[in-house]
Give the backbone structure.
Amino acid sequence: MNPIIKTFQWGAHKVTLETGRIARQATGAVLVRMDNTAVLCTVVGAKSAKEGQDFFPLSVHYQERTYAAGRIPGGFFKREGRPSEKETLTSRLIDRPIRPLFPEGFQNEVQVICTVMAAEKNQDPDIAAMIGTSAALAISGIPFNGPIGGARIAFTEETGYILNPSFSELKTSKLDMVVAGTKDAVLMVESEAAELTEDQMLGAVLFAHQEMQAVIQVIEQLAKEAGKPRWDWQAPPANTALMKALADGFKEQLGEAYRICLKISKHRSCVSALSIKSRVSMAAITKPCARSASKSACCRKCTARHYSRAVKRRRSVLQRSAPRATRN
């Protein structure tokens, strides 16, 4: 496979997206260059979900390496240690906008790793990592309703809004905002500002969403040329019997309980609504546990014992937290 490279001018920066040369065994891999900063973003997805798993195991790891700045660790520690606070926060920054774009019910394990290969001293690689993650997901074939774009915005009275400012420009800026979104909507805004008006803050969001459209268009072009076929994945059927039993058994009682304004009375009403009898009656609908040969009988006993203890603990907490006059 020949490498596919897309280059475009984005504000004051020259951005290059390259795929097909590095990390070809990954489900999707894109090398992003923003001026002298380079970030390798790889995505690997499992073809099937683990049996019994009831959550979406998405993990995002942003990794900075000292060799990216031209240094090799010496002394006792010759390799990088645990992730720094900056790496952890950047991983969360990338995770937040991409997580809601996976389809409902998709529970296949997905791992995203962003490794800084070269770092410019005056530029933060987090925006390049976000763009690379979006591009890698777009070409991977994993069910993903993207792509997304991201941008950092600064603001000064003299120059107005600045797209992807440097560290030196952020020192004199009144705003440090990161915006991520799709072609049609904004997904995430994270910012700190020095007493700006609402119109200035809203203008920064609109400015970022407008500028990130160039990134989204290039990623779409890259996906058309180098993208893998989209996985033939179908959402698992919903457990309508369980949902109906939950609605019939708890919806009306919980609705009445949540309309009570007094906190203690509301808690007591919720506990009474979630009675043991109603819980045990639903045990026959739930899946049996895998640790017993006589699964149905075991599940009913375990469910009754579990919720009986939970209700007792809840009642004791409410009694301790209630005023002394109401205990008598």
